[in-house]
Amino acid sequence: MQLLLTAEKIDKNYQVLKALIKKLDRGPELTRLYDDMELDDRIQMAPASSVEYFHNAIPGGYVDHVLRVYKFALATYDFWEAQGLDMSGFDKKELEFAALHHDLGKLGLPGENTELYQFNDSEWHRKNQGKVYKINPNIPHMTMLDRTLFIFNHYGIKYTLNELLGIRLADGMYDPENEKYFNVFEPANKLRNNIGYIMHHADMMASRFEYERWLKYSTKKFSSTAIPKPSTSTTSPTDEFSKLFS
Q: What whole-number distance in Å separates Cα of residue 95 and Cα of residue 73?
């Protein structure tokens, strides 16, 4: 059974995302960004990754992932606060901004035909390697962070240092550059607040959730998939997923 989102769910997710964006203090500028980059339903239909066994490599997967990270980031913030950790040094609105934009660079660049992910027209790669999407050869190679910051700058959207670090550190040490922030021992060099840790926990948990869901419903096996497949369920994956943000 293949996991796909219904057209109705994809549209609902996008409406939820736009509503959250409008609540931010840069709502008008961000609305312009989203309206401009929604050419040919780019944002609605974008996947969160290119390979089937990564996470959310499905139409609508990007927005679905962003909303889940947003939800998990706020839940993690509340949990850490309840456990007595120091939540000073950053504003909760900064966390919301970082969560909603931590993967913005996955949308590509402003303009037509500049989306990052394109459907892979090689059936062999889709079937045998799970490479559902390919990188658009028409756009230059950039890091995800650089592409994100370019989009912000293109639309005149300012961001705080905390928001930058929240976006920067969401991938944890999966991004080797982040070792300079996480793998430090001198107190003077440690992160000054917890937004980076919370963002990484939220992104990692969301990605893991999506990967385990793929394992549960996928009938395919790839050599790089080493974790045993959970027992199957008669519950429809679409019905189960729809409960998350309903």
A: 7
Residues 37 and 110 sit within 8 Å (Cβ to Cβ) = yes
Where along the chain do its domains lie? Answer: 7-242
The phi and psi torsions of 134 (rounded to 5 degrees) equal -125, 160
Calpha distance 32→168 (Å, rounded): 23
CA 209: distance to chain centroid? 12
CA–CA distances in Å: residue 90 to residues 60, 123, 161, 162: 31, 47, 10, 7
* pLDDT per residue as tens digits for the range 118-156: 999 999 999 889 899 999 999 999 999 999 999 999 999
Q: Which two tokens stand for residue 228?
A: 């045993």
E strand segments, 109-227: 117-119, 133-135
Q: Which helix (H) or strand (E) covers residue 205, if one does?
A: helix 195-217
Instruction: Return the amino acid letter for 135.
Output: I
Enter the pTM of the model.
0.87
Measured CA to CA, the distance from residue 83 to residue 235 in angstroms comes to: 35
**By three-state DSSP, how is residue 125 classified?**
helix
